[in-house]
């Protein structure tokens, strides 16, 4: 009997279940695949559930006549899943212990060596991918600082790599996954002592809310 999947330290079980199933079946897009795989490496919470899903899927496949996949097609699939991997470029000399290898293959450097971009007071951002409605970003937030209040026009999935944060919906530490959609309007705030570094994959644009968001909307309308 598989364990109930968990979204985070205080998150409910339902939001992450489709992502875990998609990971087990190999149907997630590459950046979401890397996020979920990294979560499973950092946290034991959902490993039993995914293992049970994989075993069930394997049993179904064993009873089917499945054509063998040509090497070229197999390599194309692996290349899509591990986009940004070591292929074609040297492996970094140092591997950041805070970053699981699936993410390290995408980032290609330690967190402290990333060319962070200003995102607001106490906030830094590094975009890894932005195309076809999917954005993959790293966020570095100083202790006690907050991201702008926002909601979503799609799914936002966030993995904590360092430190912790809370958003009024849940509290998330290293290895935890937070999931939000258009029903969630939140303002993530980093831990006042240690701050946080997170990896987020967003499907669809983020919509700012609260005083800052309303001010920006007024400016853009002029």
Percentage of residues in helical conformation: 25-40%
The residue-averaged pLDDT reads 79
Q: Uncertain runs with pLDDT below 50, 5 residues or more?
A: 8-14, 64-74
- How many β-strands, per DSSP? 10
Most strands sheet: 8 strands, antiparallel
Distance between the termini: 58 Å
What is the overall shape? Answer: globular
Q: How large, in whole angstroms, is the Cα Rg?
A: 19 Å
CATH class (first level) name of one domain: Mainly Beta
CATH superfamily of one domain: Jelly Rolls
Derived from helix and strand composition plus strand pairing, the structural class reads alpha+beta
Structure description:
By secondary structure, the chain is α+β, with helices and mostly antiparallel strands. The protein has a domain at 115-221: Sandwich (Jelly Rolls). The protein is 31% helix and 25% strand. It contains 6 helices and 10 strands, in the order αααααββββββββββα. Strands 1, 2, 3, 5, 6, 7, 8 and 9 form an 8-stranded antiparallel β-sheet that branches. Strands 4-10 form a two-stranded antiparallel sheet. A hairpin with a 2-residue loop joins strand 1 (117-120) and strand 2. Helix 2 (30-42) packs across helix 5. 30% of the residues are buried. The model is unreliable at 8-14 and 64-74 (pLDDT under 50).
């Amino acid at each position: 009997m598989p364990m109930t999947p968990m979204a985070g330290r205080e998150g409910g079980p339902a939001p992450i279940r489709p992502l875990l199933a998609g990971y087990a079946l190999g149907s997630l897009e590459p950046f979401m695949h890397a996020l979920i795989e990294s979560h499973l490496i950092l946290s034991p919470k959902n490993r039993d559930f995914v293992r049970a899903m994989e075993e069930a899927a394997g049993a179904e496949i064993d009873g089917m006549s499945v054509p063998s996949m040509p090497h070229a097609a197999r390599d194309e699939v692996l290349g899509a899943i591990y986009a940004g991997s070591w292929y074609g470029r040297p492996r970094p000399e140092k591997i950041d212990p805070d970053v699981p290898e699936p993410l390290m293959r995408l980032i290609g450097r330690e967190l402290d060596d990333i060319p962070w971009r200003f995102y607001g007071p106490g906030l830094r951002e590094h975009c890894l991918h932005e195309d076809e409605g999917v954005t993959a970003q790293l966020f570095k937030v100083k202790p006690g600082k907050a991201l702008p209040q926002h909601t979503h026009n799609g799914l936002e999935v966030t993995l904590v790599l360092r430190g912790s944060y809370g958003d009024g919906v849940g509290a998330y530490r290293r290895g935890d996954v937070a999931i939000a959609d258009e029903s969630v309007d939140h303002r993530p705030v980093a831990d006042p002592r240690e701050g946080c570094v997170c990896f987020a994959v967003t499907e669809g644009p983020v919509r700012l809310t609260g005083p800052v968001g309303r001010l920006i909307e007024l400016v853009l309308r002029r």
